Amino acid sequence: MKRFLFAAALLAAAYPALAQTRAPAPTDRIVATPFDGTWAGTAAAVGSCAALDIRLIIEGGAVDGTASEPERQRAAVTGKRGETLPSPPALWQLHGRVQTDGTLKLAALRSMKERERQNASWSGRAAASSITLTESGGCSRAATLARGR
Questions:
Q1: In the predicted structure, residue 17 carries a pLDDT above the cut 60
Q2: Element (H or E) spanning 2, and its range?
Q3: Every domain of the chain and the residues it spans
Q4: Distance CA 96, CA 59 (A)
Q5: Which is nearest to 96 in space by CA: 116, 69, 68, 67?
Q6: CATH architecture of residue range(s) 26-74+82-147
Q7: Which residues touch 147 (CB under 8 Å, ≥6 apart)?
Q8: Using the 8-state DSSP alphabet, how is residue 136 labeled?
């Protein structure tokens, strides 16, 4: 009986060390920024590059969005069996970060079945009522975005 009581006392003494819980990580909550919200605008066509309709969502400084070509006539694409298929509109995926000083850096990826993958980068500055972006390399399009509803 004494051995049982001794073992129970050791277990009771060790229990608080085993039952410690994890402290919450400092990144568990999203901190709002003055640039949070939905932004929409256009980038004008440059040379052989089409115009883009751009839509961004900013939350806690993280930027996620899309850029797509507006509806227009496109050259037909030839399918695997030689049939003529309509060319789908280009869709770009945009993601990045807005810094506290308002500078933006975005990475863009365009992936289409009929074409090879394309990468681009955008940089710019955010203000209270507008965002200006410039595409690096390739088309060098410029865009102005306003807060959406």
A1: no
A2: helix 2-18
A3: 26-74+82-147
A4: 11
A5: 67
A6: Beta Barrel (2.40)
A7: 37, 38, 39, 129
A8: E
